[in-house]
Specification:
Structural class: alpha+beta
Largest sheet: 6 strands, antiparallel
Number of helices: 3
Strand order of the largest sheet: 2-3-4-5-6-7
Strand content: over 45%
CATH superfamily: Lipoprotein localisation LolA/LolB/LppX
Amino acid sequence: MLLFAGLSYAEDKPVRQLKAFLKNTKSLTADFKQVLINEAGNPTQTSYGVFYLQRPGKFRWDYLKPFQQQIVSTTGKVWFYDTDLEQVTVKKLDESMGSTPALLLSGQVSLEDNYTMEQQ
């Protein structure tokens, strides 16, 4: 299943399954691979790491390669820690974060209002 930022929505079985998963999942740990793609559709950077979720409202992304970075959220705030720069940036976890997967998993935004879904 793919998630896309957008405004359309159809209530079908995959959508109901994802909504149930998001509602009922209290904790989750997963390895991830993130690929940044440019406007031409070509991959420009691939990152790897580990993702942790504990509901309500807590998550952590540990980027391990190619650059170490940590993103942590607890109760309405997000901390971005850049290991190389030894710098922390703190932001509110709200609509200003856009339609990111992190915001979706936090449970603080509506699936219907912020994502277009299609099954593959």
